[in-house]
Backbone:
């Protein structure tokens, strides 16, 4: 067993983990950040995407001990106490979800994309989301939601 301490969504959280425990499991089972979904355990679906040290990672591909001392942001950290974050709100407004299982990973990937490229084209959005699978929506409204956030942020910056 190994003791790990992470800064998760701005709060210092810790626990003991076996060396083989995945970050996705540690977040869900031990730290109760259940918004991080586990869809495949093979890094194919992207439902488990979180930000570690400012980078989007599939948390099923990382051991919990590898994140020791790092800042981790999960889907729960994308909203404040009173309202959804802008990407979450855009997903709702643009009907970019159906069953919602892939949504946390999609939102986290979209946030990383918009941090890297504040004004992506539709093709760039689709390319960036290639590692996130959605079995329900066909991606059209997901792309529309991400595009709307980019446009809103651009308008706010120009004002």
Residues:
């Amino acid at each position: 067993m190994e003791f790990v301490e992470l800064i998760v969504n701005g709060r210092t959280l810790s626990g003991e983990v076996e060396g083989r425990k995945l970050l996705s499991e540690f977040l869900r089972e031990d730290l109760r950040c259940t918004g991080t979904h586990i869809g495949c355990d093979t890094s194919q679906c992207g439902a488990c995407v979180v930000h570690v040290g400012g980078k989007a990672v599939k948390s099923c591909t990382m051991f919990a001990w590898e994140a020791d001392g790092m800042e981790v942001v999960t889907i729960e950290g994308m909203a404040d106490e009173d309202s959804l974050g802008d990407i979450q709100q855009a997903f709702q407004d643009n009907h970019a979800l159906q069953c919602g299982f892939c949504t946390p990973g999609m939102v986290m990937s979209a946030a990383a994309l918009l941090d890297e490229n504040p004004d992506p084209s539709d093709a760039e959005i689709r390319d960036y989301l290639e590692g996130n699978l959605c079995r329900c929506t066909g991606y059209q409204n997901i792309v529309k939601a991400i595009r709307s956030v980019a446009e809103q942020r651009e308008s706010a910056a120009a004002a």
Q: What stands out?
A: The CA atoms of residues 83 and 89 lie 9 Å apart.
